[in-house]
Amino acid sequence: MPELPEVETVRSGLAPSLTGAVVDSIEILDVRSLKRHAGGPADFEATLTGRRILGVVRRGKFLWLPLEARDGDPEGKPIALVGHLGMSGQMLLRNPGHSEDKLTRVIVHATEADGTKTEFRFVDQRIFGSLAIDVLIPTTDGAPGGFSAGVAVGESWENLIPHSAAHIARDPLDPSFDSAKFLAKLRTKNTGIKRAILDQNLISGVGNIYADESLWQSKLHYDQQAKTLSAAKAKELLTAIGDILTAAVKVGGTSFDEQYKNVNGESGYFEISLNAYGRTGTECNRCGTPIQRDSWANRGSHFCPRCQRLR
DNA sequence: ATGGACACCTGTGGGC
DNA sequence: TGCCCACAGGTGTCCA
After folding, report:
1. Sign, CA torsion A32/A33/A39/A43
2. Which of A9, A116, A227, A249 sits at a 20 to 30 Å CA gap from A243?
């Protein structure tokens, strides 16, 4: 469920507590949450325990925590704890002794830089999300691997990205996002516009909610071929994406059920301003026509059949 | 390069 | 109340 604004809300919530914190111990309640860790649960625990966390970084929907190097690291390569929330993941910070959170899969016990004890709890209903330790490699453009405003320890990890996230394009809130390059590439794509903006190799961070919202905002049908967009229309769409993601980050992400929570276990409020997603049958806020939901690519697409015509 | 189907999972809500 | 089906914010892989 979480898209860029939800993941950014989690990132900014984790950073003050976890930057500079040291991992004391790990509790693995469900090994399936570690399925993307190549070495298995025992290796995960051994590699993470005793490490200092250097920062909290995000690109698109991927989060990672660069870890302090130590003797015995394979090939002396820097590593990070990489997290993805999948459809239903949550990362909660709890005081020791806090009541248990349902569907908790992994708990990392840590001591913050000021000595405070804390618990980082990875909660995930559907287990499409994961935690894994991965090597960090240099970014191809030499710029920082992702977004990590604020506190940090050192900068040896700055221009690196986890190997498992290296194929993910920069997101539109990344200072190193190249708008001109994205727009040019978008207009060569021989595919529908929604498919294109959901392609994390082209632009990252956009998921089903914000895709539908951005297309509604710029009056585009989800199946409109990307290559038919004028330069101006493509730019209008990118502006809508940026504006909507920014607005959603400001209110702490979107949530309409128990599945998305910030690190304190609280929900966001963006649902009040959704114009298309989840509004099947209700009147379009622009023209009054009922919003339609089509089955599309094994999921749903919400749009106004009058404002967003296929051309 | 593109797209479709499917796999990975659990939980909830609606209809009957 | 119980059962079955549809549906849910994502990603990766295999196969035409």
Report:
1. negative
2. A227
* CA→C1' distance for A68 and B3 (Å): 42
The whole-number pLDDT of residue A168 equals 97
Q: How far is the CA of A86 from the C1' of C11 (A)?
A: 8
Residues A183 and A161 in one domain: no
Q: Is the CB of A177 under 7 A from strand C?
A: no
Active site residue: A2, A144, A162, A172, which one? A2
**Cross-sheet strand order for the sheet of A57-59:** A57-59, A62-67, A79-84, A130-138, A160-162
Overall number of domains in chain A = 2
Q: Is any atom of nucleic acid chain C found less than 7 Å from the CB of residue A32? A: no
Q: From CA A88, how far away is CA A82, in angstroms rounded?
A: 16
Structure tokens at A199: 């392609």
Taking the CA of residue A224 and the C1' sugar atom of nucleotide B2, their distance in angstroms comes to 15
A13 and A160 inside one domain: yes
Residue span of the structural domain in which A145 resides: 4-165
A126 flagged as catalytic: no
Could you tell me if A291 and A199 lie in one domain? yes
